[in-house]
Amino acid sequence: MTAHATHRAIEAVWRIESARIIAGVARLVRDVGLAEELAQDALVAALEHWPRDGLPDNPGAWLMATAKHRALDRLRQLSMQQRKHEELGADADALGAHVTPDFVDALDAARQDDIGDDLLKLIFTACHPVLPTEARVALTLRLLGGLSTAEIARAFLTSEPTVAQRIVRAKRALTAARVPFEVPAADARAERLDSVFDVLYLIYNEGYAATAGDDWMRPALCDEAIRLARVLAGLVPNESEAHGLSALMELQSSRAHARIDTNGHPVLLRDQDRSRWDPLLIRRGLAALARAEALADAGAGWGPYALQAAIAACHARATRSGDTDWQRIVQLYDALLEAAPSPVVALNRAVAVGMASGPAAAWPLVEALASQPAMAAYPWFYSAQGELLAQMGRRAQARAAFEHAASLTRNGRDRAVLLARAEDLSDPYIQ
């Protein structure tokens, strides 16, 4: 294998294994920042040895063992430093009681291989509420996604120094707050798990509908979020929302190939060629949704991600746009408004009402949201207005609504779609 091929193989192994390695080491050292540093040391060792010696039979195990050896070496050093601070004549038993248990615990932990539990601890740590949202996202992508600082910066159109600073501050904040490397107790788990769901969906949504820039989608972010959601659903199999989140991502991503035409232009949902939707992702999404539904009906209750997945399933099950069960979608939005009320959910429900019952039924619902501060700079509020106005024959007002929507978006592809819609409504004879 050439040196270039070896380096590519190392990159691939690291992307797959890094989260497990960091999690395994964090169990020993109880510090996520130090764990990442030691895991990186193992990666450097691989870059030194593998081009010369060839890839080991089990690259992931090699990296894990090397990182754990580095961790134990660090613990030995700390233990020796503690001993040096003891008085030379200290009682040996007292010294052992002071120093040895931590090291013995670390050795016992090193012999264990509870990777699933370690990954769950790492997810909860990276998404801890003590961190601001931006820091949770960056740290999650770094520790669990294996993305480099440059990749994270490129995905979110942020400078590398900014992302690097967020990650460094996040690790320092976790250390300063003495956030334990553990799955929180049952009474705190729901709140923390909700934070994990929100971070993963924020990562996914930025990939599926980029906030800014020239790309309509960033597939790499979607792929990472889906992978992490699958891992999480496997780690907490009795959580309905974990399966709901995974289902939502799978079902939305099934449309990815149909969302852009051969010229790279965006294609809206109603105009998509549904034969291009990915049947495997649809099957996986519907299977995950079935698990979420079973748990919800068994007593867990319906959460917002399971409800959104059920809405996505209504689209996935319709072979043609005209076959979509909009009445069912309205009912699901009613439940979603109760579970997670927000102006955006209310707007989406109004759009669904328009599809189910016509623009006249939807228009008062949309107009009622005009006073909501969140709608003032939300381009899709004005886009929804434009669609309803166009359907009601008020073309000049519709065109103005689409133009205003275009002025608010920071994504170049979204802007082009909205301006094209406004252009379709142009008429020199309309005042």
Automatic annotation (TrEMBL):
The DUF6596 domain, residue ranges: 192-292
SUPFAM superfamilies, A to Z: Sigma2 domain of RNA polymerase sigma factors (SSF88946), Sigma3 and sigma4 domains of RNA polymerase sigma factors (SSF88659)
Protein name in UniProt: RNA polymerase sigma factor
Gene Ontology MF annotations: DNA binding; sigma factor activity
Source organism phylogeny: Bacteria, Pseudomonadati, Pseudomonadota, Betaproteobacteria, Burkholderiales
Span of domain RNA polymerase sigma-70 region: 23-78
Pfam family, one: Sigma70_r4_2
Species of provenance: Aquincola agrisoli
Chain ranges of the RNA polymerase sigma factor 70 region 4 type domain: 124-174
Database matches in Gene3D superfamilies: 1.10.1740.10, Winged helix-like DNA-binding domain superfamily/Winged helix DNA-binding domain (1.10.10.10)
GO terms, biological process: DNA-templated transcription initiation
